[in-house]
Input
Amino acid sequence: LVPPYAKVPRPFPRKTVRVSAGPPVDLDDLRDRPLTKEVLHEATDRILDAITAELAKLRGEVPPATRLDLRAGGTAQDDETEEDP
Output
């Protein structure tokens, strides 16, 4: 028996892992501004946009027009399927 949440070695089939590092995200214009919620959101948005662009390039796909916001109660399937009330 294997304890719950134990890591079980799975040597085969081996998974292909690709790593890509994009260019640095320019946040220099935010350094001189006071540390506020808006500045942090701007920095986060820039970093997430850069990650999304790099992931789209790696996958060879076009990223969605808007980023998924789990705080708004959205799920990955919300954009694809609409349910009638």
Notes: The CA atoms of residues 22 and 54 lie 6 Å apart. Residues 78-85 have pLDDT under 50 and may be disordered. Residues 28-62 form one domain. The longest helix spans residues 37-59.
